[in-house]
Structures are given as C-alpha cells and as structure tokens.
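pasting for the record
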Amino acid sequence: MVDGFFIVSLQKDIVRYRIQLMGQRIMKRCSSLTRVWLSVFAFVFLGMSAFAQTAYPTIAYTVTETVNNEISTTDVEMNPGDDQVANAPLTIKMFANLDENVGWESKCEWKIYDPKDGESKPLLNRFEENTTYTLEKAGAYNIKFYVTFSKADEEDFEYESDVFKITITESQLSCPDGFSPNGDGKNDVFYVKHQSIVKMRGVIANRWGQKVYSFDLSNVDKGWDGRQNNGSIVKDGVYFLSLQAEGSDGVKYNIRKAVNVLKGFREYDE
C-alpha cells in the first residue's frame, strides 16, 4: 500500500515543478524590475528561487563633450529596450549581469546587427559574458543578449533580452579662422569642432613651415591655447593648419587654412 503522505508530497512537487517552468517562461518576457519582483514573490510566497536564473544585461559608455571651453564626461548606462544617439567612435561595454546562477552553466552571446538585415545577418557575435566593442560607422545598430542556463537533471532555461538601439551620427568637422589667447576668458583656445570623426591628424605650423602644435583624436578636445612645445605662447600673426580626418560615414576631410593668432584683440561686453 502506497503511503498517502508520499502521494500528496509527490503531487506537490509536480505542481511546484510546473509552476517553476511556467515562471521561467514568464520571466523571459518581463522587464528587469518585473523579474526582480517575481523572484521575490516566488521566494517569499512559494518558498522557491526556481526562476532566479536569469540576466540583467546593460550597456555602458562615456560621452565626452566640450562645454564652455571645458571638457566634461557623462557616463551612460542602457537597459534593454533603450534607444540612444551617439557620436563615433563609441566604445561600448556590454555586461551580462547574470543573477543567481550558482550551480548552473551559462552560455552567453552578444549579437550586434543592422536592423535592416535582422538578427540572421549579424555584424558581430561575441560569446563572452562581458565584452567591449567600438562602433565606428554611421547608422543604426541593434544589440541583443542571449544566454542559456544548463544544469544536470534540470530543463535548460533560455533568456533573450529586448533590443538595445544605438544610432551613430554622420560626421561633421569645422575649424575657426582664429583666436585670441590673452587670458580674458573669451576665445582663448582654438577648438576643432567635430562629430563622429574616427581618424584625425592635425598640424599647425608657422610661416616658415615649423611645427608649433599637433593633435589627434586623443587630445583634440583640449584645444590649442597658443603655446608651443617649449611652453611659450606664439607671437601674433598668421599660422597654417593642415588637418586630415575621416568620418564615421566614410567622408574624408583635408582642411588647409590660415589661423590668425591675435593676443591683442579683446572682446568687450556692451
């Protein structure tokens, strides 16, 4: 004779297992915040952490801007479903943020693709949990994260994130005709205005062809304050800029122009 208590316990285990599978399927379709509340509900009210094996993927990057002649940086974090517009080159850091997967094996995949082509024709596949990539070409990018959790005697659980959307702008490049490095706080620095430029090399020379300053993408946002390599400020006069660059959209720039240095010029407020 089969013990009645054993039958009841077995039925409870079957019900709990079915709830677990149903919960896993629900979790795949929920936002990160909703998944947290569902996990808490499962633990507190059902006495299980059955569908805690999931991920909370994020993408992070840093934006550098020159505002009021000062360089500022802003850290941006994206969640699945977010849509951002940014300039190239944009280095993005992708984090899986796997949660409560002790005892489970995980197989991760990051996929970057053109929304016109779809997921079946990815531009990039990465199979690390966390990875980094630099977007250099103008256009729209879709990014998705996938992970499969596996454990002996358990059904595999697959998670697929919502789409992260990033649009890289087309390039722009311009330079002023001059500046006045006299310390009055107005137009003291020569700044190159640029957007989505992925390659850059610039040289400023005097009228005898001697280089007085050079720059590239690593230091262009600092601007030129009129100082030479020895630290002294150049004399008033005409200097010559030679600037070669390439944009995220493939546009190539070859700018050659005169730059006027006028330390004696001052702007007065009316």
